[in-house]
Amino acid sequence: MTGFRFTRYVPPRDDRSPFERLLPLFLELLTHTSGDVEEALDWMRELDKDHDLFSAGYTLDDFVDDLRKHGIVGDPPRDGEPLRPTGKAEKLIRERALEQVFGKLERRDIGSHDQRRTGPGDEPTSGRRNFRFGDRIDQVAMSDSIRNAQRRGLDRLRLREDDLEVIETEHQGACATVLMIDISHSMVLYGEDRITPAKKVAMALAELIRRRYPKDTLDIVVFGNDAWQVSLKDLPYLRVGPYHTNTVAGLELAMDILRRRKLGDRRIIMITDGKPSCIVRNGEYYMNSFGLDDLIVSRTLDAAVRARKSGIPITTFMIARDAYLQDFIERFTEANQGRAFYTGLRGLADMVFRDHAANRGRSS
User: Fold this and answer.
1) Residue 118: pLDDT above 60?
2) Is 119 exposed, middle or buried (0-12, 13-18, 19+ CB in 10 A)?
3) CA 337, CA 22: separation in Å to the nearest integer?
4) Closest Cα to residue 87, out of 214, 235, 208?
5) Are 140 and 165 within 8 A, CB to CB?
6) What pLDDT band is residue 169 in, cutting at 50, 70 and 90?
């Protein structure tokens, strides 16, 4: 008779120290609290009451001491100032975001960077060709070249010019990307935290570019009533404000940044969960949170057209299911000739990644 045999579950052995087991939880809480160490520790204290995070042999105070010893938080500040994360903590948060969002990726999973041209380039390939005058010595495939010489016999092994084979390389293009993040109040409206996943995506994308695409650039723009640029260092500390959504300001700043980058491939990735509800008119804010305002919509569509004429495609990730908002994004995408995705938070990270990696070479 076919069936299942159940045995006692034996959990895998965890050889990590108490500090190593608790550090991922602390980094996660630190992201949610926008870098507030004291608040993250308060959350760990509350979780300990229900889940026994700490034991008699290892307390929260011991964990804080280890955070200092490992350089993740600074020494106790003077004048009662709160503990602050260090640069090492910021790097660990980015690396954790990369692992959470993209996982352990193979090169074939992340899209091609080459431009389908061989010759003196950036990336080695499996192709080989005969040596030509002017080739660098570091391009020579020594094993293949010696094998060619061995075919004439091993008694008097000598390399000739016609034995030499050179490793073919392919050109890699550099892409300038601006990631726009909506920090309007609706990103935390109704008790739903949408800003933390957006920050994780930005940190993961930045870490991915830093590791695998060193010639690429990534700039981060946040937009509410206005738009401003933030550094990668500041990203974990990003907070939502009591703002409306000035999409036009964000797009104008993003396009200005990309014009200064002077790279062939330029693109904007925009993460937003709400409709445009603010513009600046005659030096003053014009706001309307009720429905889609015709004036605000027309200004936003005009910005999308300007980006298209500048050769800058916009990929929009709309965290909303409202039919009228999706209709607006369809008009926005058509005006720019870009791309649009309508997604919940669960699928947001993977689509940002795949669109960046698989479509870098598209400039229209």
Assistant:
1) no
2) exposed
3) 47
4) 235
5) yes
6) low
